[in-house]
Design a protein that fits this description.
The protein contains four helices and twelve strands. Helix content is about 15%, strand content about 35%. It is elongated and about 70 Å long. The strands form three sheets. Strands 1, 2, 7, 8, 9, 10, 11 and 12 form an eight-stranded antiparallel β-sheet that branches. The chain has a two-stranded antiparallel ribbon with strand order 3-4.
Length: about 230
């Protein structure tokens, strides 16, 4: 179980656990005769048979060429079993690219590109040795917030002993009674987005609490996408 340092409304912090909210069972694939299937990677195409290369080679005759022959299939390599993989970047002429600088494209709600900037590489800021995640006190009704953001990830905050049970139960009850979710931030002032791993995506984070009797659920929901109306 991973751990984070979380503070409450009176600026008391505690080391608590967090993990995935849902444990999904892996499906078992079977053949028609009942044998268990095996997942394997197989080579589908090579750079020489990619869409861009074929289009450059055949131009307007590509459709007719695909019908009359199979230039999109490398008969010597198609179907080869693939083992471990490493990610590389290719130049437009399908050569291995070195010294790559990644760019981030920012779009307006109507799909228009706003700007292109160098991709930021941010360090993780949820370490138990760093600043605790701050209880900002900025609450918003659940009904409103669910229509404002697209949540990409969710983690369940979990107690690790009796003291942290009371600590988290009190948080969940405050949020459940208010029927609201609360903004959580990182950094010294609690205004930084959360970065879950080095080089990861920065997320805006919200806490959601639910209670039933003596039980509680405290969920950390992460989003990097805000829903905005498109101006006509």
């Amino acid at each position: 179980m991973r751990k984070i340092n979380l503070s409450n409304d009176v600026k008391r912090d505690a080391e608590v656990g967090f993990g995935n909210t849902v444990k999904r069972l892996s499906p078992v694939n079977r053949t028609a005769d009942g044998k268990e299937g095996i997942n394997e990677r197989a080579l589908k195409l090579t750079p020489e048979t990619s869409d861009a290369v074929l289009l450059a080679q055949y131009g307007d005759q590509l459709a007719d060429t695909l019908i009359s022959s199979d230039p999109e299939i490398d008969m010597e390599k198609f179907g080869f079993k693939v083992g471990s993989l490493r990610k590389i970047y290719l130049s437009p002429d399908q050569k291995v690219a070195y010294g790559v600088t990644l760019k981030e494209h920012v779009y307006l709600p109507d799909g228009t590109e706003k700007e292109v900037r160098n991709e930021l590489t941010l360090p993780a800021n949820i370490s138990v040795d760093g600043m605790p995640l701050r209880w900002t006190g900025k609450m918003m009704p659940k009904e409103r917030i669910m229509r404002m953001f697209v949540f990409k990830k969710s983690y369940q905050i979990q107690h690790v002993n009796g003291l942290t049970f009371d600590f988290l139960y009190d948080m969940a009850k405050k949020l459940a009674d208010a029927k609201a979710m609360m903004l959580v931030g990182g950094g010294e002032k609690g205004t930084d987005p959360l970065v879950m791993a080095n080089g990861g995506t920065p997320y805006r984070a919200f806490l959601e609490g639910r209670i039933r009797g003596d039980s509680y659920v405290l969920i950390l929901r992460l989003t990097n996408m805000e829903l905005k109306p498109i101006n006509a």
